[in-house]
């Protein structure tokens, strides 16, 4: 699966800015791939692109309309349907990361067939992956891991890819979740793969490459999350990472969705992830910690990160406040 | 999903005894559930049951015909079809653990619909499982883990269930693979579940129970297997095991299917599994080691196990040669 670019970002009737975070992610990380945004009446989000019609988007060369908004229940709303059909008729594919599938809407399926266009439900893998073979691949790989779910692994990975490219390093972000796939146009939603093929799917999306090339692989879940650690484990093994970056959110009171489960100690978390990763790459190292300090004041955030850096002895950064250049510098020492 | 008993075991045209190992497993562990075996001309296997016709099986009360044979490629052969149809017409359901599905054969589907019977492809989960919640459940649980795949986890689990029941302990085997499901009539083929739901599926098949009740959960894969460790990790977390039993095959030269990957050291393997299991049950203990010594002479086997027992300090048994009573005794000390 590879989404065709450039994109028209569909914001629909987003209730607020947060509801359009998928569109925001695409705009932030791939502005060159966006011809504009399409908003319905009552839309309360704006990702800072030009508002354009389907006709204008088509004239500007848009190849795919991306549903960049999450509404309650992940449903594809009736009020969206006429826009999606207009886009298909204008020659665009449609891509969505929502729970409910485009391909379950007969009207859309019929329209896409008629016009020879494709519907991409990127949350659901459509191809089969092989069982992982564990054979060492050429090229280098960095994987983001986390103390918990939803602590900034995708953001950190994209920031590292950008910084590496800015510093002249040959690097590619590899998406493992639906938002990452929509941002970059490819990847696998690894938590939706059949369990036997978790590691194999990652081997497939981060294949052998030039010796100096880096894949920056988006992590999922946490080895310390009682619901999802299996996904994380397979992802670690399939990545054969040369480098890990640990992501963390310091104000979380318990593991996401699991009251009663405390977050792991940072040093223990690093050690446990390294131990798992050594199975397929004995030389793996942790090169830094990425902290999402958005819930802290600037001063508090800086003190927290200074203390952590002293304790752990690795670069500690907030990618949003400071960027990830110190982590990339550390990486170059490998 | 719950298969109806008793069973007629279909051995088909099994090339040799090994090809009928599913039928053999059912006969060994649930002889009281089998009314007989059905063999085609040229069948080279025999699980020691009476050879009976479909008509006789039906008269004896058979509710399900189990495909107890694996042929090359896991295909449901043309030559089997007339027998399966005769069984459906005689009132039986059909159950299979093969890769190719019964439900993909239009002739079988039509016949089952016409006669109100069911086709069970037990390798493929048909229900949705919830995301694991990690909440401590009442009742006790034992999980078998392994140094590698295919080292005797199912056999060991069934032997422990039987020994516990013989000793008056209230215990149930919980199947996590297709052969185990066919033997016991229920469970989940956990490596075929969508990755996000591995731990949740295990929480579902080993639900809360009486405080003194033991679930004996069949393990899958190994934390040290680069292809399948994600499945194992989720299985460990969902099981919330009070007790682990490590299974091992001492003559294996590398991890199954992975040349170049050595087997883990036994003590390291125990420690790593305990560490993973402590996330959802901090009190977990390893209570013994089950060794498949079928590739060793009696004397060699005994020496190997004696040495290992001295080194590790836990009961070491071959469940086939000696039974698992020493492991169950150790369990009672918990």
TrEMBL record, chains A, B:
Domain named D-glutamate N-acetyltransferase-like N-terminal: residues: 47-125
Domain D-glutamate N-acetyltransferase-like C-terminal residue range list: 131-328
InterPro entries linked: DgcN-like, DgcN-like_C, DgcN-like_N, P-loop_NTPase
Superkingdom, taxonomy of origin: Bacteria
Gene3D superfamilies linked: NAD(P)-binding Rossmann-like Domain, P-loop containing nucleotide triphosphate hydrolases
NCBIfam families on file: DgcN
Protein name, as recorded: DUF1611 domain-containing protein
Gene source species: Vibrio astriarenae
């Amino acid at each position: 699966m590879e989404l065709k670019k450039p994109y028209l970002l569909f914001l629909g009737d987003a209730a607020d800015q947060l509801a359009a975070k998928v569109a925001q992610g695409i705009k932030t990380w791939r502005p060159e791939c966006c011809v504009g945004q399409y908003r319905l009446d009552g839309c309360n989000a704006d990702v800072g692109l030009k508002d354009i019609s389907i006709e204008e988007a088509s004239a500007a060369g848009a190849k795919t309309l991306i549903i960049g908004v999450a509404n309650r229940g992940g449903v594809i709303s009736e009020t969206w349907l006429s826009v999606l059909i207009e886009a298909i008729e204008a020659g665009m594919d449609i891509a969505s990361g929502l729970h409910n599938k485009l391909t379950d809407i007969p009207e859309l399926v019929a329209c896409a067939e008629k016009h020879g266009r494709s519907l991409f439900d990127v949350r659901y893998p459509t191809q089969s992956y092989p069982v992982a073979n564990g054979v060492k691949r050429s090229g280098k790989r960095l994987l983001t891991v986390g103390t918990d779910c939803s602590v900034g692994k995708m953001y950190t990975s994209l920031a590292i890819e950008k910084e590496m490219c800015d510093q002249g390093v040959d690097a590619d972000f590899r998406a493992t979740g639906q938002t990452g796939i929509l941002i970059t146009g490819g990847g696998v939603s690894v938590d939706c793969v059949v369990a036997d093929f978790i590691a194999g799917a990652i081997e497939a999306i981060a294949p052998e490459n030039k010796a100096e090339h880096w894949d920056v692989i988006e992590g999922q879940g946490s080895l310390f999350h009682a619901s999802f650690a299996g996904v994380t484990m397979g992802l670690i093994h399939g990545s054969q990472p040369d480098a890990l970056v640990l992501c963390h959110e310091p104000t979380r009171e318990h593991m996401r969705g699991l009251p009663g489960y405390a977050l792991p100690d940072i040093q223990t978390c690093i050690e446990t992830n390294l131990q798992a990763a050594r199975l397929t790459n004995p030389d793996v190292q942790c090169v830094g910690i990425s902290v999402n300090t958005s819930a802290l004041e600037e001063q508090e955030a800086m003190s927290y990160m200074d203390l952590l850096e002293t304790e752990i002895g690795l670069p500690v950064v907030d990618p949003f406040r400071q960027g990830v250049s110190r982590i990339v510098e550390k990486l170059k020492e490998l």
